[in-house]
TrEMBL record:
Gene3D superfamilies: MoaB/Mog-like domain, MoeA, C-terminal, domain IV, Molybdopterin biosynthesis moea protein, domain 2, Molybdopterin biosynthesis moea protein, domain 3. Catalyzes the insertion of molybdate into adenylated molybdopterin with the concomitant release of AMP. It is an enzyme of class 2 (transferase). It comes from the Bacteria. The keyword Metal-binding applies. Belongs to the MoeA family. Pfam families: MoCF_biosynth, MoeA_C, MoeA_N. Pathway: Cofactor biosynthesis; molybdopterin biosynthesis. This is Molybdopterin molybdenumtransferase. Residues 126-148, 292-313 are annotated as: Disordered. Its cofactor is Mg(2+). Residues 204-362 form the MoaB/Mog domain.
Length: 447
């Protein structure tokens, strides 16, 4: 009788065989979604100089002390400081009784101690409170003449201090960080054009089965639409991979073998779905049980040369429901990992979450490769049955506020509609044959 593997044993075997991809240097736009392999230190202060957080006037604090609309402080405007400028023309300072028009992001000129928002002034017009800064091109006289300030300011008011975000020598991002939009923004802001990362793994997903038609085609007798390859390709991308979907392959072992061999050039991981059970047309087992086995030397031991193909795929029965039939191994000259999943939609999706997603995250070089789990109270009207000796995974909806989880859909592994409603998997352990209402269970969060 063949060995029955536990879920944990199968996953442990997969993760022991999968290695993080080799690091490469990538330009920032290409590094999105990748994982840093080294700490990134700050070399340039952010902001790199004291600058204004408002459109207004750079002033000395003592010059506007006690200012009000009734008794405004009247200052001489000595020039404009625009964003991107180095300061006042000629490098002059703001002297007592003077002010400089300043734009958001512009460097604070020498001598100035704070910025008065333009709304607290007359905008240099001689009238009432201004609502906005007039454009220099429309009002060149606004850069000279006088401005009336209606409110006092404290030292450093509306000034972004040099290095108030990060300073040289600070840790910008630690190794292991995923490079997302905010991280790319920070890297660009501190002047980094490229970073050393592990690339996003390339995952090839293909379905098998002569009964599969592509969405958009007309269904003929006995055929169904291929949903697995679409769902698993999307799941691979959601996990962080670059995923390629291959059109369904018919039940022909040679065609499947040839298709997989053609795909190896662009694959760090291959995922198949369907054809791993014991039926007469389960061709994945036929095609892959011997493909890629390493050649033997004269004494019968596997050849260990670097260019020897992978040892092939091992097909197993797992103590789980759904997803009992599984396959795992490596194929081709680069020993590319291959995971063969069952064909029923729920079985394939659950198998992906339990086995493929952690493999993808391991290839990325992440430390935590698993979905988060919580403990929740089972919200059901009557007890749920579970097969003895098998770990059961039920689709569910998790209510974080109430701390409860409710099953959705029936137990059938073909019932794909409930997948769209579920945001969690309810885990019933091997020794639990009945889960009563109110039972505390482990819940794997999917979103």
């Amino acid at each position: 009788m063949s060995t029955i593997w536990s879920v944990d044993e199968h996953l442990e075997d997969i993760l022991a065989a999968v290695r993080p991809l080799e690091p490469i240097e990538l330009q920032l736009p290409d590094a999105q979604g990748c994982v840093l392999v080294e700490d990134v230190m700050v070399e340039v202060a952010l902001p790199p100089f004291d600058n204004s957080s408002m459109d207004g006037y750079a002033v000395r604090v003592s010059d506007v002390e006690g200012a009000s609309e009734e008794f405004p402080a009247v200052l001489t405007v000595v020039g404009d400081v625009a964003a991107g400028a180095g300061g006042l023309p000629g490098g002059r300072a703001v002297a007592p009784g003077e002010a400089a028009r300043i734009m958001t992001g512009a460097p604070l000129p020498e001598g100035a101690e704070a910025v008065v928002p333009v709304e607290w002034t007359d905008g240099g017009t001689g009238g009432g409170p201004a609502t906005a800064m007039r454009a220099h091109s429309d009002a060149p006289e606004g850069a000279s003449g006088e401005v009336r300030v209606h409110r006092p300011v404290k030292p450093r008011a509306h000034v972004r201090a040099r290095g108030s975000d990060v300073r040289p020598g600070d840790l910008a991002l630690p190794a292991g960080s995923v490079v997302g939009p905010a991280q790319i923004g920070l890297l660009a802001a501190i002047g980094r054009a490229s970073v050393k990362v592990r690339p996003r793994p390339r995952v090839v997903v293909l379905s098998t089965g002569s009964e599969l038609a592509q969405p958009g085609e007309e269904l003929t007798g006995g055929r169904i639409y291929d949903s697995n390859s679409f769902a698993l390709t999307a799941a691979a991308r959601d996990a962080g991979a670059i995923a390629y979907r291959v059109a369904a392959v018919a039940d022909d072992a040679e065609a499947l073998r040839a298709t997989i061999e053609d795909q190896l050039i662009r694959a760090d991981l291959v995922v198949t779905t369907g054809g791993v059970s014991v039926g007469a047309y389960d061709v994945v087992k036929e095609a892959l049980s011997s493909v890629g086995h390493a050649p033997r030397d004269e004494e019968g031991y596997p050849d260990t040369e670097e260019d020897a193909p992978g040892p092939g795929v091992d097909f197993r029965r797992l103590a789980m429901q759904p997803g009992k039939p599984q396959g795992f191994g490596s194929i081709g000259p680069d020993h590319t990992p291959l995971l063969a999943l069952p064909g029923n939609p729920v079985s394939s999706y659950v198998s992906f979450e339990l086995f493929v997603r952690p493999a993808i995250r391991t290839l990325m070089g992440l430390d935590d490769v698993h979905r988060p789990t919580v403990r929740a109270t089972l919200s059901v009207d009557e007890a749920l049955s579970s097969p003895s000796g098998k770990r059961q995974f039920l689709r569910g909806r998790y209510d974080a506020e109430a701390g409860t989880v409710t099953p959705v859909g029936g137990p059938g592994s073909h019932l794909v509609a409930a997948l769209a409603q579920a945001d969690a998997l309810i885990v019933l352990p091997e020794d639990m044959t009945s889960a009563e209402p109110g039972t505390e269970t482990e819940v794997i969060l999917l979103r």
